[in-house]
Amino acid sequence: MARCVLGEERVHDHLIERGIQLRHLRDGYTENGESRDDSETRQTLIFMADGKWMHGGLTDRLRGMASAYKFATEHNLDFKIYHTSPFELQEILQPNKVNWVIGEKEISHNCEVAKPVLLYRIDFKNDSALERQLDSSHKQFHLYSCVDTVGEEFSKYFNELFKPSPILEQELSHYGELLGENYTSISFRFQNKLGDFKEFTFKELPEKGKRKLMIAAMNVLRKEMPHHHPLVNETSKILVTADSPTFLAEVEKLPNVVTVKGKSIHIDFNSSKNATDYMKAFTEFFLISKASKAKLYRNRKYKTYPSNFPKYAALLGHVPFEIVEE
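Structure (tokenized):
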């Protein structure tokens, strides 16, 4: 069927490319004489974020981990997460109902014991793509994937896996006090269009385009600004998240707006191993999940990125989500 849809040449090229990339993941695996464990212990699926692959942004990783855990529970596999690139995940998220932490020494690199497994975006919503790569002879499967198979069940599997670390809890408590109980969140994802968020090869707009996009986004934000509630004698707050320091600097001048302090960085394009450098994104994710409603700004003319970040944060907290598009 793939040959009919894609053509023989494209299918061949794809399979060749996939094979080359998988061989790259096998670097470091040897028949090293490590004794095999032939006991009746269950096989283990390990979600890998060790820097050998492009692991994706925060949302890609979180839904990938939740999906991998879902697969493991449905296929009677133990489940672990080895997230060391660019930082150790347990510094920000800790195990909740499942002990998913695994140390480097517990990971086998004996090719008779362990097998790297790679899933692509084209494998989305396709558990069989993973099933086909498993076998009965290996004890560990090292999964490189951001495939999403949890969908609307994201919250269920996420909460079984994770709870905020104490340092993240402190951040959430601080911003929770600033926001109050009834706040709206609106997210903006410009990538590098405003020239201040370097990400992959995305190009910035000309100066005229930057000004027009900035004005358009600010106008939409002003329309979304909360109104005063006379019955409770207070004005609800609005949480604004964005990947542009320039935009956030303008946003912070508006009344009743709360932004999370810290660096705006992409987890897959930053080499810092300091977990606190990534705290802003995790804090924003949890804060959106606690909002009364969550929104994403989309600009069709300037093709702002259709980020899944606020969508999955909203799924985590069962928060109504919508896209404000112009």
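Residues 112 and 138 are 6 Å apart (CA to CA). Residues 8-25 form the longest helix (18 residues).
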